[in-house]
UniProtKB/TrEMBL annotation:
Gene label: hutH
Pfam families membership: Lyase_aromatic
PROSITE patterns: PAL_HISTIDASE (PS00488)
UniProt cross-link 5-imidazolinone (Ala-Gly), position: 143-145
PANTHER family: HISTIDINE AMMONIA-LYASE
Compartments, record wording: Cytoplasm
InterPro entries, alphabetized: Aromatic_Lyase (IPR001106), Fumarase/histidase_N (IPR024083), HutH (IPR005921), L-Aspartase-like (IPR008948), Phe/His_NH3-lyase_AS (IPR022313)
Top EC group: lyase
Residues recorded with modification 2,3-didehydroalanine (Ser): 144
Organism encoding this protein: Peptoniphilus olsenii
HAMAP family attached to this UniProt entry: His_ammonia_lyase
Protein name, UniProt field: Histidine ammonia-lyase
Gene3D superfamilies (alphabetical): Fumarase/aspartase (Central domain), Fumarase/aspartase (N-terminal domain)
Top-rank taxon, per record: Bacteria
């Protein structure tokens, strides 16, 4: 992807990731400029005529009852940035901040926020030159939008706050100077236009969504490898079984498993070795499929939000000024709560498959998949660690969107907590990557034991063979505890997943 052209209407998830993580450059489509300029003209007319309009010549929130003079209208906008930047905690990671900047630019290009084109262009220049504002992750209620974190985004534009440049944390003014950029003074309405919206929670949740899409495929790969190590029954993945209960995610998962296991002679059929497999093997299409359906739903909601105006008030294309609630995060808080549940379930079922692999009474292989168990503990505690992460995810999957707290003298009396919903799902994603890396590493160990037990007379599937080879490039068979430090091996396995190497290799071999 060479460049992302922003119109306010066509930004998708893949483009967002390309800019946020791949540092692809972005530019403004010329067709969007006219609407931006027209919207700005309406604001200037309101200021000149001294018509009372919220956020232009009034205070904010419950202070909307206070009128602001024409002479103070620009100071009002700087004040809102200085006082609203009241976040706390660790800084948001670079990719999330870059996603925030891109989404905010795209939203402002819809031409209903009354901001100057030059102000949007400055934010775009910061993005393209990788001036990354320091934004503490905590402090947003998700309505009226992500006020505190977005105010931190704006501070460097004014020569205030802090920002990273070339990876170094600097004072905002210095970071701008090193990038060859000049700070600005905000004009009427601009401070509010920049900070009132769902941009932060959407950015964090959107990147977690992208990772969840990949995790849903990795879960199929991990599960297929475990099926082979257990000589599981492939019949449960037959297409006809799923066409009579045709949920899209279930159909997709069953197809993925068939593709991954194509050509495998390790898999069995009903009553060949056993009549039925345990649920964690047999019901993968139904469980993974439910998560896939939720992920697809969330993707649709995210891509609507990426191209939405979440400012308040909105200046219509014919000059009307309307105060509404487009800043409210509930429309995204609920989907991100659903996404946390869906992604957690991929980790939960994986952890149970790990238990089947390391438990000698279930696997028929040595305890904890190591030679000479007792002297060696093998993969014993990797299952504990995976179980700890799975349990943590259960707590993180408690919905944030059912909570609320009043703010702003009870004017803003029902909020979404969408920022917490998005940050929770980010943590769930991290945990599930580790759980799946653990399963894939252990499944490769189990496959090696199975090969030895069966005198190498069977063949792995078309997709699982590629996955096995990819993990074996990073992690060797573990003969005994004294040869390794298990944390290091887990880190190597996880890097194969998080880097995309394993998934990319498998997708070249089979359709997923």
């Amino acid at each position: 992807m060479e460049k992302v052209v922003l119109t306010g209407n066509n930004l998708d998830l893949e483009q967002l990731v390309a800019v946020a993580r791949g540092h692809v450059q972005a530019e403004i489509d010329e067709k969007a400029i006219a609407d931006v300029n027209k919207s700005r003209q309406y604001v200037e007319e309101i200021v000149e005529e001294e018509r009372v309009v919220y956020g232009i010549n009034t205070g904010f929130g419950s202070l909307s009852r206070v009128s602001i003079s024409k002479e103070d209208s620009t100071q009002l906008q700087e004040n809102i940035i200085r006082t609203h930047a009241s976040g706390f905690g660790d800084p948001l990671p670079e990719d999330e901040v870059r996603a925030i900047m891109l989404i905010r630019i795209n939203s402002l290009l819809k031409g209903v926020s009354g901001i100057r084109l030059s102000t949007i262009e400055l934010l775009l220049d910061m993005l393209n030159k990788n001036v990354v504002p320091f934004i503490p992750e905590k402090g947003s209620l998700g309505a009226s939008g992500d006020l505190a974190p977005l105010a931190h985004m704006v501070l460097p534009m004014l020569g205030l706050g802090k920002a990273y440049y070339d990876g170094e944390l600097l004072q905002g003014k210095e970071a701008m100077q090193k990038a060859g950029l000049e700070p600005i003074d905000l004009a009427a309405k601009e401070g509010l236009a920049l900070i009132n919206g769902t941009t932060v929670l959407t950015a964090t949740g959107a990147l977690a969504l992208y990772d969840s899409i990949n995790l849903s495929k990795l879960a199929d790969i991990a599960g297929a490898m475990t099926v082979e190590s257990a000589r599981g029954i492939i019949d449960a993945f037959w297409e006809e079984l799923h066409t009579i209960r045709p949920h899209e995610g279930s159909l997709e998962t069953a197809k993925n498993l068939r593709n991954l296991l194509e050509g495998s002679t390790y898999v069995t059929h009903t009553a060949e070795l056993r009549v039925q497999d345990a649920y964690t093997l047999r019901c993968m299409p139904q469980v993974h499929g439910a998560s896939k359906d939720t992920i697809e739903y969330v993707k649709k909601k995210v891509e609507i939000e990426l191209n939405s105006a979440t400012d308040n008030p909105i200046i219509t294309h014919d000059g009307m000024v309307i105060s509404g609630g487009n800043f409210h995060g509930e429309l995204m808080a609920q989907p991100f709560d659903f996404l946390a549940i869906a992604t957690s379930e991929l980790g939960n079922i994986s952890e149970r498959r790990i238990e089947r692999l390391v438990n000698t009474t279930l696997s028929g292989m040595p305890s904890f998949l190591v030679k000479h168990p007792g002297l060696n503990s093998g993969f014993m505690i990797t299952q504990y660690a995976a179980a700890a992460l799975a349990s943590e995810n259960k707590t993180l999957s408690h919905p944030a969107s059912v909570d609320s707290i009043t703010s702003c003298e009870n004017q803003e009396d029902f909020v979404s907590m969408g920022n917490w919903a998005s940050r929770k799902v980010r943590e769930v994603v991290k945990n599930v990557y580790r759980i799946l890396a653990t399963e894939i590493m252990i499944a490769a160990q189990a496959i090696d034991f199975r090969m030895e037990m069966e005198d190498n007379k069977f063949e792995l599937g078309k997709g699982t063979k590629v996955a096995y080879d990819a993990i074996r490039e990073a992690v060797d068979f573990i003969e005994q505890d004294s040869n390794i430090e298990i944390y290091d091996e887990l880190e190597k396995a996880q890097e194969v997943l998080t880097s995309g190497k394993l998934l990319e290799a498998v997708e070249k071999a089979v359709e997923l």
